[in-house]
């Protein structure tokens, strides 16, 4: 009996009508078409065109000014000519593509034929650079993620590059048509030249916030004394062109989290950039040198320092040039040997098992075109206050060094002076007897970069008893 | 028990009555069904007139990632090369076959889709792909953004690809004789990119890519001879023979590469004639495929065709 009731119940249940229960009032296809049509109308409704900024994987932001037509054509200008030569005047001569909105995984805006936008993604690295087979890691097919403040947030379908579209104002459109995409970047170079190390100070910590033309760099020293570095793709708006400001506002593709703070972008207040963090405004000032301590020494962040006295005019001190370099250069020059480069390098000394500072002077013999590097090793003590005292100096053994040391002695003497009792009678270094050792103490610190066009991290060794007597150079790891 | 039977009958009736009629509406709108929706421009109209209507062929120059390798960085083609490239394809590939094998030949056997890509496709081993065929259905041409109408070398490269891929379609439809694979079996290698042109020649191959496998060898034979011409081919054979004769030591080469190349050539000639009724070389005063392709190339380069 129970069995039959069970069968009856099963049959009854099977007969239930399956009702479709949609969460939305319309079916997906209708909704998709509607959304697509809305986006189409938005894109077509910008009378002065759109600015599109894309954050490429390899080089940060590139910016375009675009005008879309109902017939599916798009004309654009681009800012690539600010960085690359040989690709034509992309900021003045328009390039065209066809465009479409398509329902892929999400409603997507596709630039269908080759244009400036595609230069960035071209896998042929002879076109614009980047990696062979990948280009700069860019996109030309975007899903529309959201709409806000009259603009569109996009994400690339292939490389997931973030992109942002904002409608242009009439003034911006005029500037863009006159090559503004390029000039705004060129103008920004003036800011970067004037403010070498843009820095904010929050509490007792200094943070480097450096808005480069296509990305913004952040750096600071955390509580564990580690250097923390971050980079975000960023682009400049047209304020420096339309409002005649010295610099344009800087927009980040995504907020940057740093030491518990969120950075959303930089605004130019007429005199300096400012950044807003949790309702408070901080002004960016020029710290002249990086806003964190330099770690230069054996097994440190940097262990080498290179000096090219010809290309570092202004950064090297007058004392260094007049008292040491020029006399040495001239005397060696009289023997048709010309100093090209100098370096300080912290290396392990195999004999003593202790690190030493190696000072090298590279000079070219003009008569045969050969170069030679004279090297000296300086054992040193690290003092309690972090300064270094170079306690002695050894030549590294070559005849060439033995012969020419007397003509350039000011340079090796900078770190530790030596007097010899029998230099004139000796045939080689091993016969020389030191009669006096004059050690010097040095402070390791950043040096201010005062040479136009010189880039990189500049550090120096400053003699403690005479701080204006220092050797400065480009730091290497 | 009887009551129960009634109950079952009643339940069944109720069940049947309970079935609702499915409302299937075939006219329901499906977004994107029926192809892409764009305003045709002059390129679209040219393609329609020259490829789609006469040959039922689609020429895709608008970017569509789904037609391509999803893991490869590629970029679309420049609009201004689409018509010139496809015009050359028509003159140098379609027209010779139409004359030799009849108007319906291309309609029957041609791939139905051309996909045009601007950049080359890079392989992880550093080689690049300039053309691809998929089961006789689709031909993808890469690297077209480098095209200029007077660049003979590049035009030959493009047309070599087209003829090469179509040769695949032919042998995938009816296979070439098995003997072809037995002529230089030891020469086939997957690391063909490490073989240079001279090494390939001395092994009896028309090109380095021909060393990759027999199917490629076959397609390379047809496409290279057609696109570079019979004189070029004869010079290659002569050079191969010379290398064989002037070998450093008598036993250096196991066989005469020129002989192997001649055997392959004979198979290609017979295959095209017997299977498809196409003369490869001039015959009885009639022009063969190679001559027609060569003449079309000359006319393309001298801009003798109306655009």
From TrEMBL, chain A:
One Pfam family recorded for the sequence: DUF4302
Superkingdom as given in the UniProt entry: Bacteria
InterPro entries: DUF4302 (IPR025396)
Protein's UniProt name: DUF4302 domain-containing protein
Organism: Odoribacter laneus YIT 12061
TrEMBL record, chain B:
A Pfam entry, by short name: Peptidase_Mx1
Domain of life of the native organism: Bacteria
UniProt cross-references to InterPro entries, sorted A to Z: LP_HExxH_w_TonB
Protein name: Substrate import-associated zinc metallohydrolase lipoprotein
């Amino acid at each position: 009996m129970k069995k039959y009731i069970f069968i009856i119940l099963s049959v009854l249940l099977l007969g239930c009508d399956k009702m479709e229960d949609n969460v939305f009032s319309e079916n997906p296809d209708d909704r998709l078409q509607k959304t697509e049509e809305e986006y189409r109308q938005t894109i077509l409704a910008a009378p002065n065109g759109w600015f599109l900024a894309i954050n490429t994987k390899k080089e940060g932001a590139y910016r375009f000014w675009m005008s879309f037509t109902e017939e599916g054509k798009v004309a654009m200008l681009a800012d690539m000519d600010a960085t690359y030569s040989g690709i034509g005047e992309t900021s003045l001569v328009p390039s065209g593509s066809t465009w479409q909105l398509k329902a892929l995984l999400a409603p997507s805006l596709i630039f269908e034929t080759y244009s400036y936008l595609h230069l960035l993604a071209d896998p042929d690295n002879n076109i614009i650079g980047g990696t062979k087979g990948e280009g700069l890691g860019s996109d030309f097919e975007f899903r529309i993620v959201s709409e806000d403040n009259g603009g569109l947030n996009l994400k690339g379908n292939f490389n997931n590059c973030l992109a942002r579209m904002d409608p242009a104002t009439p003034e911006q459109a005029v500037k863009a048509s006159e090559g503004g995409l390029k000039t705004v970047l060129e103008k920004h170079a003036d800011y970067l030249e004037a403010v070498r190390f843009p820095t904010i100070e929050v509490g007792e910590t200094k943070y480097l916030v450096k808005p480069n033309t296509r990305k913004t760099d952040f750096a600071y020293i955390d509580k564990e004394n580690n250097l923390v570095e971050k980079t975000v793709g960023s682009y400049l708006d047209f304020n420096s062109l339309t409002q005649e400001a010295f610099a344009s506002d800087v927009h980040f593709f995504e907020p940057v989290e740093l030491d518990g703070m969120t950075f959303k972008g930089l605004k130019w207040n007429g005199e300096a950039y400012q950044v807003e963090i949790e309702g408070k405004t901080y002004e960016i000032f020029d710290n002249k040198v990086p806003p964190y301590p330099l770690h230069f020494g054996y097994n440190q962040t940097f262990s080498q320092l290179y000096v090219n006295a010809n290309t570092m005019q202004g950064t090297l001190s007058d004392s260094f040039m007049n008292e040491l370099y020029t006399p040495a250069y001239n005397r060696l020059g009289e023997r048709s040997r010309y100093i090209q480069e100098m370096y300080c390098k912290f290396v392990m000394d195999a004999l003593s098992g202790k690190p030493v500072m190696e000072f090298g002077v590279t000079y070219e013999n003009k008569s045969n075109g050969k170069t030679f590097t004279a090297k000296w090793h300086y054992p040193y003590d690290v003092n309690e206050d972090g300064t270094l005292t170079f306690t002695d100096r050894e030549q590294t053994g070559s005849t060439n060094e033995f012969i020419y040391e007397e003509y350039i002695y000011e340079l090796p003497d900078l770190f530790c002076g030596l007097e010899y009792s029998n230099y004139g009678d000796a045939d080689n270094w091993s016969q020389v007897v030191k009669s006096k050792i004059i050690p010097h103490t040095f402070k390791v610190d950043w040096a201010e970069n005062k040479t136009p066009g010189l880039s990189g991290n500049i550090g120096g060794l400053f003699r403690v008893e005479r701080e204006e007597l220092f050797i400065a150079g480009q730091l290497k790891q | 028990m009887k009551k129960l039977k009634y109950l079952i009958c009643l339940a069944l009736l109720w069940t049947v009555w309970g079935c609702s009629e499915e409302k299937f509406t075939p006219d329901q709108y499906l977004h994107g069904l029926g192809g892409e929706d764009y305003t045709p421009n002059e390129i679209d109209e040219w393609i329609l007139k020259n490829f789609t209507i006469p040959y039922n062929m689609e020429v895709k120059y608008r970017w569509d990632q789904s037609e391509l390798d999803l893991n490869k960085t590629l970029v679309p083609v420049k609009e201004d090369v689409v018509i010139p490239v496809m015009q050359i394809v028509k003159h140098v590939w379609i027209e010779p076959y139409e004359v030799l094998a009849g108007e319906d030949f291309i309609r029957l056997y041609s791939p139905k889709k051309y996909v045009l890509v601007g950049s080359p496709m890079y392989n992880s081993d550093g080689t690049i792909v300039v053309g691809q065929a998929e089961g006789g259905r689709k031909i993808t041409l890469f690297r077209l953004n480098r095209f200029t109408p007077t660049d003979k070398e590049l035009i030959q490269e493009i047309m070599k690809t087209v003829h090469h891929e179509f040769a695949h379609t032919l042998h995938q439809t009816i296979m070439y004789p098995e003997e072809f694979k037995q002529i230089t079996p030891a020469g086939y290698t997957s690391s063909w990119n490490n073989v240079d042109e001279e090494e390939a020649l001395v092994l009896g191959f028309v090109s380095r890519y021909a060393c990759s496998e027999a199917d490629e060898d076959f397609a390379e034979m047809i496409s290279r001879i057609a696109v570079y011409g019979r004189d070029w081919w004869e010079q290659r054979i002569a050079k191969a023979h010379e290398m064989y004769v002037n070998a450093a030591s008598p036993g250096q080469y196991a066989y005469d590469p020129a002989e192997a190349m001649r055997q392959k050539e004979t198979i290609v000639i017979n295959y095209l004639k017997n299977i498809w009724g196409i003369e490869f070389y001039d015959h009885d005063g009639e022009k063969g495929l190679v001559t027609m392709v060569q003449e079309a190339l000359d006319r393309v380069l001298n801009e003798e065709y109306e655009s």
